[in-house]
Amino acid sequence: MRLPMPLVLLLTAVLASTAAPALAQTAAPADDPNAIVEELVVTARYPGPAFWRVSDADSEVWIMAVPYYIPEKMVWDKTRTEQVLKGANGLILPSGVGVGLGEAVRFAIKYRKQFTNEGNRTLDQVLAAQVIERYQQLPKAYQTTDLKTATLKPIFAGLSVAARAKKTGRWTEPHSDIATLAKKAKLRVGYASMTSALPIAKAIMTMPDAQQSQCFDGFVSSVEHTIKTIGPVAAAWAEGHTAEFVRGTTTTGADECIYSIGEVQNMREKAYQSEIRTIKAALDLPGKTLMITNVRPLVARNGILARLKAEGLTVRTPAD
């Protein structure tokens, strides 16, 4: 049986694009998702986005925390970033999840029957009334799934809505700009770690119907939240106002859905450990390295900087 191309494209978008931001925007690694080390959240001393630094005797890793999205045409001060990249050993991008196109196609063929609702029921037949109402309150341009005809399981439909919102809203990832600067400077660019998204997709397929509906609602509410906050959060980040930046990156409904999956919780902790190992490896090289990560895992009470400081490394804040 030939797999319909839209399903191939959807699966690729879900596994290769949407899952990665969800992992990247995790809540703090603590029972309280808003538990942060307040002394690490300070206004930057210099213009532009804030940097934290981790160092030993002869090496230093500069860490820039970024929002996942900023407006596509936003202009921000790249001067200090370019200075940090000058003469650096390389650029480390955040941990993420993904899958190759070939793997996505094979996976979609094997599990094609599990992408749709039982009996090919449409979304307006399986979603709760209040969930449908929230979706219909999104701006029309963001209502990219027809609830009366779509038969995808709610969580896949929600992932699709979230993935398409990026294009609709003209949002972009700031680390793309920074990677471009690094490549222009002829520096090595690599991820802290990369994990297969397929275990997440398998876990998603087995979610109970009620949880599926809640997850669709979570992705819709996350899109709604991003529409309202992307401008202020991006501006706070670009101006080095870290407290305002952190406040704007609270846990969303999409996060709660994704992190209700045990496999993803395990991946999150592995991602923290990978980033810490990557920082230590960078400190083995004389000189400096630039790393990009997300702000809450960085400044959480049990986050990256707290763990490194506990191991005896020197940690400097944006105010230093």
Task: Set out the fold topology.
Blueprint: H1 5-24, E1 51-55, E2 59-65, E3 70-71, H2 79-85, E4 90-93, E5 96-98, H3 101-110, H4 123-126, H5 129-136, H6 154-169, E6 171-172, H7 174-184, E7 188-191, E8 194-196, H8 198-205, H9 209-238, H10 242-247, H11 253-258, H12 262-283, E9 287-293, H13 295-299, H14 304-310, E10 314-316
Parallel strand pairs: 2-9, 4-7, 4-9, 5-8
Antiparallel strand pairs: 1-2, 1-10, 3-6
Please give a structural write-up:
The protein is an alpha/beta fold and 320 residues long. It has one domain (5-316). It is 50% helix and 12% strand. A six-stranded mixed beta sheet has the order 7-4-9-2-1-10, sandwiched between helices. The chain is globular and about 65 Å long.
In short:
By secondary structure, this protein is α/β, with parallel strands linked by helices. The chain is 50% helix and 12% strand.
